[in-house]
Amino acid sequence: MPHLVILDGYTLNPGDLDWTPLSSLADGFAVHDRTEDRSQILPRIGDSELALTNKTPLRRETLSECPKLKYVGILATGSDNVDVEAAREFGIAVANVPRYGTMAVAQYAIGLLLEITGRAGLHSEAIRRGRWKSAPDWCFWDRPLIELEGKVMGIIGYGAIGRAVGKIARALGMRVVAYNGDRPPKTEESARNDPLVNFTELLSVSDVISLHAPLKPENRGIINRASLSGMKDGVIIINTARGGLVDEKDLDDALKSGKVYAAGLDVMASEPPDDANPLVSDPNCIITPHIAWAPRETRARLISEAAENLRCFLAGTPRNLL
Questions:
Q1: How many domains does the chain divide into?
Q2: Is 49 inside any structural domain?
Q3: What is the DSSP secondary structure assignment for residue 274, as one 8-state letter?
């Protein structure tokens, strides 16, 4: 069996999961917690025929120097860290793991929304500071609370995660509209049921906008000064997709002006964000460290699916190829 190397395994498995589904498929197996710069990538791949990566970038210049590499498995759904076109030219198969985290990310997106509308964390901290004890009444609230019933949820990127978010939003009594770029619904049935609208309409009618699109050149910075100007005053923005979908300076300006009531971001354009990024200190912006995908159950599923991708490739019946 060939040799397998994992270039950045720690975030997927910091020690609470078992690598056996993957290690059992290789004669030699090496896991690196992190591969932090390009100078480490080539020595670590070495003569391996199989490599797995999450955030370690595999660009054309790197892939061109790996003549024995036959397979790259992406330990994620997004493929922006691997030059898929270059890999194809060099005869390297690339597979990702779609849909492993659909419900976890959808749950988290709604969780960010519920934190913004209910401010549970803010009020819990206020109680720890003695705010309830000193209140003259039996209850208090330091920020407005928002009911979601009847509000409009606009979803940008209506794939598996976007549809799951829409399902939960409907359960909360929200009306759902979605923008999916130029991609039509996949089936006649979904064409009848999917609430697809154009981008301008979505911006204008949505009380909440949740981002679930892949990061591509055509939608980088899709949330910017121009698109923000077309939104309702007081809109809420949620991003659990890719930080690059948002122009962070424009979002900060919109938060400061009140155009955007609040934002919930699990992803940033640069991760971790620089301390000078004004969103980090904005009280109307909730930021979490890219963890929507990270429940233990979800990570275990990712390992299992990545192993099945590799097993199928080795058996000559590849799946999930990009």
A1: 2
A2: yes
A3: P
pLDDT at 212 over 60: yes
For Cα atoms 260, 248, 289, give the angle at the middle one, nearest 5 degrees: 95
What size, in residues, is the chain?
322
164 and 113 inside one domain: yes
Quick check: 96 and 74 in contact, CB under 8 A? yes
- Asked if 116 and 140 count as a contact pair (C-beta separation under 8 A), the reply is no
Closest alpha carbon to 190 in 156, 160, 153: 160
Q: Are residues 126 and 157 in the same domain?
A: yes
121 and 140 belong to one structural domain: yes
Say which DSSP state 136 is in.
S
Give the domain range for residue 185: 102-287
Q: Which phi and psi angles does 236 have, rounded to 5°? A: -110, 135
Query: Rounded distance, CA 274 to CA 278, Å?
Result: 9
Tell whether 108 and 255 lie within a shared domain.
Answer: yes
Tokens representing 200?
A: 């301008």
Q: Say yes or no: 62 and 120 in one domain.
A: no
Instruction: Tell me, letter by letter, the H, E, C secondary structure of 164-229.
Output: HHHHHHHHCCCEEEEECCCCCCCCHHHHHHCCECCHHHHHHHCCEEEECCCCCHHHCCCECHHHHH
> How many Å apart are CA 183 and CA 163, to the nearest integer?
14
Do 67 and 202 fall within a single domain? no
How many CB atoms sit inside 10 A of residue 274's CB? 9
Whether residues 141 and 68 share a domain: the answer is no
Task: Tell me the two tokens of residue 84.
Answer: 């898929």
Residue type, 143: R
pLDDT in tens, 284-321: 999 999 999 999 999 999 999 999 999 999 999 999 99
Question: Active-site residues: which are they?
Answer: 242, 271, 290
pTM confidence score: 0.91
Does 146 map to a domain? yes
User: CA-to-CA distance for 102 and 231, rounded, in angstroms?
Assistant: 27
Rounded to 5 degrees, φ, ψ at 40 are -90, -20
